[in-house]
Amino acid sequence: MRNRLRFVAASALARVGVCFCACVATGAWAGVASGQEALRAKVAAIAAEAKGTVYVACALPGSQLNCDLNPTGRPPMQSVFKLPVVVTALHQIESGKLTLDQKVRFLASDRILPNTHSELQKKYPQGGVNVTVEELMKGAITDSDNVAVDILLRAVGGPKVVTEYITSLGVEGFHLEDGEDGLASGVQVQFNNWFEPVGAVALLERLANNSPLTAEHNELLFGWLEHLNNGAARIPGDLPVGTVVAHKTGSSGTEHGLTYATNDIGLITLPDGRRLAVAVFVTNSHADDAAREAVIAKIARAAYDEAVREDK
To answer: For residue range 109-168, what is the model confidence (pLDDT) as tens digits?
Structure first.
């Protein structure tokens, strides 16, 4: 009889323990879910300031962080596409198809006329010079050089090769059809190149946590991404001073008060060393330059604050 009473008591305690653990877990999960709902609501409110359409995704290892807004939409990339092109070039260097010091001819036909954003074209307005692959990659990232990336795109085999390689990494939602010369031919052409925010975040996470590149080439790439000559008011714009951000911007012109693309994708290094991946694309916006960039900065800061809060 005593043994049976002990068994009944133990069973009751076990049920209480299970119930207690389940309740605690459920409560913790509810807290996380509530926090993520609040974050997404905040992101949506910030996005409204763009007076257009905003696409957002973010991800953080070991976290339920969710700041998604139209995460599987297909906004135009503009110069964001330069990052996948450079990643493809680095892969081809590792596979022996290219070398860092290999020289590629800057042909007169590579120029984008009458003018474009290109330090290379400014330096050599007639073309007709040889440029190393490393110089082309660095220019494409740090200066967002339009001519440099088109020469590099030709060297790696064209848009289809880049799309196939990025897809092979397990990154979905990326499509490259035109280089900068093609993009300069008309407003609607830019919509041929698109990157779903979840895909952009997947590429960033792959580079940060399980890179297909060697440590040496990854370090080279991140060195460029952390020292852009533009975009300081975007993802880094509202973060604590000294926060390391590796990012790549993309921008279109403005016609009749409408801006088709103000973009930034990047990795934010948190105080604990983890890297928060964020992608923000602002499309068809009636807001001015400062407002569009502020939207990106505020969304990045909201994601950063939630990531830091979760860690405490």
So the answer is: 999 999 999 999 999 999 999 999 999 999 999 999 999 999 999 999 999 999 999 999
The count of structural domains within the chain is 2
pTM: 0.89
- DSSP annotation string for 243-302: --EEEEEEE--EETTEE--EEEEEEEEPTTS-EEEEEEEEESB-S-HHHHHHHHHHHHHH
Q: Which entry of 63, 79, 109, 168 is annotated as an active-site residue?
A: 79
Domain membership of residue 91 (yes or no) is yes
Residues paired with 285 in a beta bridge: 259
Query: Is residue 95 annotated as part of the catalytic site, yes or no?
Result: no
Domain assignment of residue 110, given as a range = 79-165
208 and 155 within one domain: no
Distance CA 40, CA 232 (A): 24
Cβ partners under 8 Å of residue 247, min gap 6: 225, 228, 231, 234, 235, 236, 264, 265, 266, 267
Q: How far apart are CA 181 and CA 168, in angstroms?
A: 26
Looking at residue 244, which CATH number applies to its domain? 3.40.710.10
Q: How far apart are the first and last CA of the chain?
A: 50
Q: What are phi and psi of 50, to 5 degrees?
A: -75, -15
Residues 54 and 69: beta-carbon distance below 8 Å: yes
Instruction: List all residues 6 or more positions away from 67 whose beta carbon is below 8 Å from its beta carbon.
Output: 36, 39, 40, 43, 56, 57, 58, 278, 299, 302, 303, 306
Residue 303 lies in a domain: yes
